[in-house]
Automatic annotation (TrEMBL):
Residues 231-376 form the Helicase C-terminal domain. Residues 32-205 form the Helicase ATP-binding domain. It comes from Novosphingobium album. PROSITE patterns: DEAD_ATP_HELICASE, HELICASE_ATP_BIND_1, HELICASE_CTER, Q_MOTIF. PANTHER family: ATP-DEPENDENT RNA HELICASE RHLE, ATP-DEPENDENT RNA HELICASE RHLE-RELATED. A motif (Q motif) lies at residues 1-29. This is DEAD/DEAH box helicase. It comes from the Bacteria. InterPro entries: DEAD/DEAH_box_helicase_dom, DEAD/DEAH_RhlB, DEAD_box_RNA_helicase, Helicase_ATP-bd, Helicase_C-like, P-loop_NTPase, RNA-helicase_DEAD-box_CS, RNA_helicase_DEAD_Q_motif. Residues 370-485 are annotated as: Disordered. Residues 370-394, 400-469 have a biased composition (Basic and acidic residues). Gene3D superfamilies: P-loop containing nucleotide triphosphate hydrolases.
Length: 485
């Protein structure tokens, strides 16, 4: 089957041919006609099978007819990460170059000014992450009442990131008569419930059994001690014919430390994780795509949907906590019919995680026996030359016993000192004269009566002159009024 057999327009077929594609993938062959017929769709396909083009191509033909309005996008594509949103935007630019379509990209990590201006000019396609979309909607910068086509991409990743409540909220703002397309590599119960709620009689397309890995990828698990993972990774990078590789870690701190370690040992590596701002992440991805670096250490922010050609190996430095992430991680290799190799390092603490992965994929990952021949984390110091054995010293001869000492001569007794002359006794002082007794003081007179207080003008206070009967508190004014008057 060719793309010309799917009902696409001539202008779109020219763009597809210019991109180097002639035959559609299975997901594209089944999804494109249904989308052109304006049917709701559930697409379950492995990552790397071309499902992005399966909704981008028919959307371009559908949106080629119509008029755009300010602040009211005609279609909406929801993506879980900024990188995926940017990748979908690249697909629209590549395939829609022969059509007059405007597109806006709403993602976090960049300023809102340019995004708001693009919305005011009117857009045909709005590609957004749920967080930034809801932020602009609450600010009144966007209206969703004119959106007739909704695409929910990587729905299972949306579930892992906690975006399902936001998606449900967004769906309530859209017209009820819209067309909805949902794509996912796995179909957990919450996603099935979401599809039942917001899709109307959808067509279900399963290119492969959910949560299965690409058959073009050779998968291995390596049992290794946690402290020897770096040595094993360096050994595989040197000996397994690696051209380009992606190394996935569970923690952002591990990403930074591992990238520093690889660079210290002479590898051309870079890193990408959630703590980096968007321009830095884009720059690092571009370096990897351009071949300036051939090893990219990443967290799961890069595990979903990134289409980087020529990745020969994927290394799971940490066994993923979520089994679904395993399918998406190894899907970075073996894309578009190419072959790839995926190694998962399993420490003793990862036993449960790898069991969950095998239960999800319903397959047993073969064990890879690896021998670590590389050096340790720190270069070994040169061995110092062994010390020459010095001749042992002869034991010292015993000293002869000391001869008996002659007794010391007795010292002559000291001469007795002459007694000191007796001092003359001091003269006795005359006794002091006795002081005359004090005259008896006259007894104190009776305590004088307190003088009445005077006000500032010097006149006595009338409240103090009246007989209060021993009362020393405030006197109410009504006591001065006589009842006989």
């Amino acid at each position: 089957m060719k793309f010309a057999d799917l009902g696409l327009s001539d202008e779109l077929l020219q763009s597809v041919a210019a991109a180097g594609y002639d035959e559609p993938t299975p997901i594209q062959a089944q999804a494109i006609p249904s989308v052109l017929m304006m049917r709701d769709l559930i697409g379950i396909a492995q990552t790397g099978t071309g499902k992005t083009a399966s909704f981008v191509l028919p959307m371009i033909d559908i949106l080629a007819h119509g008029r755009r309005r300010a602040l009211m996008p005609r279609s909406l594509i929801l993506e879980p990460t900024r990188e995926l949103a940017a990748q979908v935007a690249e697909n629209f630019e590549k395939y829609g170059k022969n059509h007059d379509l405007r597109m806006a990209l709403l993602i976090g990590g960049v300023q809102m000014g340019d995004q708001v201006k693009a919305l005011q000019d009117g857009v045909d396609v709005l590609i957004a992450t749920p967080g930034r979309l809801m932020d602009l909607f609450e600010r009144g910068k966007i209206l969703l009442t004119g959106c007739d086509l909704l695409v929910i991409d990587e729905a299972d990743r949306m579930l892992d990131m906690g975006f399902i409540p936001d998606i449900e909220n967004i769906c309530t703002k859209l017209p009820s008569s819209r067309q909805t397309l949902l794509f996912s590599a796995t179909m957990p119960p919450p996603i099935a419930k979401l599809a039942d709620k917001f899709l109307s009689n959808p067509k279900r397309i399963e290119v492969a059994r959910p949560a299965t890995a690409n058959i073009n990828i050779a998968q291995y698990k390596v049992f290794i001690d946690q402290r020897k993972k770096r040595e094993l990774l360096r050994e595989l990078l040197r000996t397994d014919n690696v051209t380009t590789a992606m190394v996935f870690c569970n923690r952002k701190t591990t990403v930074r430390e591992l990238n520093t370690s690889l660079q210290r040992h002479g590898f051309s590596s870079g890193e990408i994780h959630g703590d980096m701002d968007q321009p830095a992440r884009n720059a690092e991805l571009q370096r990897f795509k351009d071949g300036q670096i051939n090893i990219l250490v990443a967290s799961d922010v890069a595990a979903r949907g990134l289409d980087i050609k020529g990745v020969s190996h994927v290394f799971n430095f940490d066994t993923p906590w979520h089994p679904d992430d395993y399918v998406h991680r190894i899907g970075r290799t073996g894309r578009a019919g190419a072959t790839g190799r995926a190694f998962t390092f399993v420490a003793p603490a990862d036993a449960e995680a790898i069991d969950n992965v095998e239960k999800l994929t319903k397959s047993t990952i073969p064990v890879y026996e690896a021998r670590i021949e590389g050096g340790s984390e720190r270069p070994q110091r040169e061995d110092k030359p062994a010390r020459e054995d010095k001749p042992r010293r002869e034991p010292k001869a015993k000293r002869p016993p000391r001869e008996d000492r002659t007794p010391r001569e007795e010292r002559a007794p000291r001469e007795e000192r002459a007694p000191r002359e007796a001092r003359t006794p001091r003269e006795e002082r005359a006794p002091r004269a006795e002081r005359a007794p004090r005259e008896d003081r006259a007894p104190r007179s009776a305590p004088r009566a307190e003088e009445p207080r005077r006000d500032r003008r010097g006149e006595p206070d009338p409240a103090d002159t009246r007989d209060d009967g021993g009362w020393n508190g405030p006197v109410p004014g009504f006591l001065n009024i006589s009842a006989l008057a």
